[in-house]
Amino acid sequence: MKLIIAFFAVTWSWLATAETVYLTSLSWPPYSDKSLQEQGASVAVAKAAFAAEGHTLEVEFFPWSRAVKTASSSGSKYVGYFPEYYYDTQEFVFSEPMGWGPLGLVQNKSAPISFTGVNDLKGMKIGVVQDYVNTQELDAMIASGAIVGEAVPSDVLNVKKVGAKRIPAAVIDANVLRYLLQTDSSLARFKDAVEMNATLLQEKQLYIAFRNDEQGKKWQQIYNSGLKKIDVQSIMAKFLN
């Protein structure tokens, strides 16, 4: 009887402290999308990490700019957004890395690009997605005008533009490109026309960006603790291989 009482006491204590944390995300398969199994690789990792600490994650999906803005709003129930690349900011604090993504350029197979570094892209028009962080060097060169960055709302539009030879290349994650070409019917006619350039811009680590306030920092610490208790690589591999 004492053991039963002790068991229920521990269980009740755990339930009493369990909370639901809210984050925003975007449709960026295979990393995140509400229609995917477990809502994607990054969401699966995040949910597992919070669950390891006894908490539940709820994710709301928005267009990217809105996902970031919603998470940054003071008093919002959403304490952060993901998946994000690291960048310098005062608005957010970043989690420990929660996975990775090979960032590079999609090109037209009939007009491949030869480059070994970002400097080789000077003067070229490169497609980017509006408000996405790319690499520090590339973003700086776009900001300076050394590279012409042509922004659109989505990766799909950039792939179409490259496939139609409207631009020579666009920045994209290799896993995202592979997924889109396999699943998006609107890209069917470009499937055999585009490919990833063999030279990557960077192997990017993925993070949760928590709002830089008391609640955000609280959940950052909880999440980082949970990450240490799960096998991130194994979870990611289920979606990316």
Task: Please write out the topology.
Elements: H1 2-17, E1 20-25, H2 41-52, E2 56-61, H3 64-72, E3 78-84, E4 92-94, E5 100-108, E6 125-129, H4 136-144, E7 148-152, H5 155-163, E8 169-173, H6 174-183, E9 194-196, E10 202-205, E11 207-211, H7 214-227, H8 232-240
Parallel strand pairs: 1-2, 1-3, 6-7, 6-8
Antiparallel strand pairs: 3-11, 4-11, 5-8, 5-9, 5-10
Helix pairs in contact: 2-7, 2-8
Organism: Pseudoalteromonas peptidolytica F12-50-A1
Family: Belongs to the bacterial solute-binding protein 3 family.
Protein name: Polar amino acid transport system substrate-binding protein
Rounded radius of gyration (Å): 20 Å
> Given this structure, which CATH class of the largest domain is correct?
Alpha Beta
CATH topology of the largest domain: D-Maltodextrin-Binding Protein, domain 2
Please tally the helical runs, counting DSSP H or I stretches of 4 or more residues.
8
Shape: globular
Structural class: alpha/beta
Please, could you describe this protein's structure?
It comes from Pseudoalteromonas peptidolytica F12-50-A1. Belongs to the bacterial solute-binding protein 3 family. By secondary structure, this protein is α/β, with parallel strands linked by helices. It folds into 2 domains: 18-99 and 206-240, D-Maltodextrin-Binding Protein, domain 2; 102-203, Periplasmic binding protein-like II (D-Maltodextrin-Binding Protein, domain 2), CATH 3.40.190.10. It has 8 helices and 11 strands. The strands form 2 sheets. Strands 5, 6, 7, 8, 9 and 10 form a 6-stranded mixed sheet that branches. It has a 5-stranded mixed sheet with strand order 2-1-3-11-4, sandwiched between helices. Helix 2 packs across helix 7. It is globular and about 60 Å long. Mean pLDDT is 93; it is low at 9-16.
